[in-house]
Amino acid sequence: MVNTGGDCQLYHLLIWFNIRKQNHPVLRIPRHVILSNASVFFAGPARNLCSQFRHTARPHTNITPYGQEPWRSVIFVADPIPDFYSKKVSAIHKFLLTDMFDRFNSRRSVVHSTKGMVASSQPLANAAGVRILEKGGNCVDAAVAVAAALCVVEPPSTGVGGDCFVLFHDHKTKEIHGLNGCGKAAKRTSIEKVKMHPDVTGPRIPLLNVHSVTVPGAVAGWIDSLDKWGSGKVTLDEIIRPAIDLAENGFVVSVIAAYIWRKASQDLIDQSGNNAKMFFNDDGSFCEAGQMFFNKPLAKLFRKVVTEGKDGFYKGDVAEKIVAKVMEKGGYLELDDLAEHTSKWVDPISLDFLGKRLWEIPPNGQGIVALFALGYIKELAKSKRIDLTKLKHNSVEYLDLLIESLKLAFYDSEHFVADLDFHPEIDVQEALSEKRLAERAQLLLQKRVLTRDDIDIVPDPMYKCDTVYFTVTDDLGNACSFINLVFSSFGSCIIPDDYGFALQSRGANFSLSHQAINSLEGGKRPYHTIIPSLITDAETNELFASVACMGGWEQPQAHVQIFLNLVLFGFNAQEALDAPRFCLEPNEDSRHLDLGKGSSGPVSTAATLVRLEEGISELVARELAIKGHDVNIVSGHAREVFGRGQCIQNITQKGKLAWAGGSDLRGDGAAVPQI
């Protein structure tokens, strides 16, 4: 216990700190005792103590009127680490250490329905989906209604200026269908042309740069999905109407949406100037949680889509405004690029594990990363190198296995995740063959953690992203797993005139190296992080769950963790999402070994940072550090790195259809049943 006097007492503070080469003249801590990156805020005399231990490697977040300090490491505690959460804290302490993720003392139970269900990050979007189900629409009809509504109520994460990926489970045929709604780079672009831009100085395109803009694929993906899989019982006007009403008549901004919104506010101003006012209040202030917001320009765009279909977006005035804004900023997108855009129908890829089969969209999406990781674990279990039945949830042994499997999966994905139209030599089925998976799994048997020294690969550039994932099931037993995004917050932050949306920045995941598998080429699709998934019975293809998680690199990692929560440990839909997760990220303090290509993927640095969510045992964290993992405990607002998932599970019993739904506690959303 350390008493700083006055109104603030520090009680067994667990500031787990990345201390590799940093030694305070007084305090020297053995590495295995250390965690890192907690934000702590102090009032009164505690500031004086705080100032003695400055560490400004990463920014903090303002959360309290009592004052804040931009230092993360303040007090170190020696071995053994005491339990921070066991101490009773005063009201002021609770307030000082509170942010958007723990202000609300709420809990969620799994939700059930014997008809349809909608799970998304925004309850208003759920209401749009349920309305369509009530009108007789199926899960695809409702999913498109949800997608459109999310473009209104969570614009930092998604929009008509972005892309979509869709998986559909047909209950009648037990078939899984896929749609890749990814747009392409401008046909006229090239690496040489892009490198002429004054802001492009490195091996990749900056997120906030006109050359990161690719053709938006979302609207085409919506309409193509409806044409192929929709019920035909509801019109496009009925499906889009809830989104039009929300945009025209206003909605109240939710907490986490406001947080993401505010983070991007300055970028919107810098990139779009006067057009940015479409996403601010009338007085020019930020959109805060609880405030009313309107987007009448977007309502106008939706009406054009209702009356003109895809042509209302990809031809005519909207397309002209998109191209004009891109060209104004020096980009190469032309009207033909939009007019010729088409969605791509794909055969989903899958892997069976413990009697269940996980389905993913094939490359250029990163779903294969999740399949690789599960495949390595499966082969180790088959060869009796591990016993899955003896693994305890979030134990040292379990997390070490998943961490190492996912690291290897990310390494290997660099050979396979690309636009297959440009790389016909990539054989995805061979990549998922038992022989190859078993051979690669041998790398996981070494006694030390996997590093770049073990793998002869230079990862391609990639960025993480903000996204929305949602899923819908219907009373026929069908399921739709759907992701829609603009990539980073508001994408490129480039806003065309008159229509209330921002253009995505997905092109930032192209490499500006001709040797890279994801090198920029005209008309090429970029590396995509968004990945919806479905889980079925491995033999019958009966739906087991429709589930996924948004969040950049975390997506395949969350797929593996949530899949095992459901299948190996028997968690219900809500428990599977609530369980603390880990996330692999590049280590900012570790030297890049990518020959100057500037990759920022989880395995792009010599050591990979393992972020553990609060709730995972402190002892487990310490033991992982002893094994050699670079461990970092994450709490509060920083938990956004673990993404926001949704899950609807098929719990049909006694011949009666039944669904169990959950929505991630890290988001604003909910699972809502149809009655």
UniProtKB/TrEMBL annotation:
One Pfam family from the record: G_glu_transpept
Record key words, sorted: Hydrolase
Presence of the UniProt keyword Hydrolase in the record: yes
Keyword Zinc-finger tagged: no
Gene3D superfamilies membership: 1.10.246.130, 3.60.20.40
GO molecular function, one term: hydrolase activity
Designated name of the protein: Gamma-glutamyltranspeptidase / glutathione hydrolase
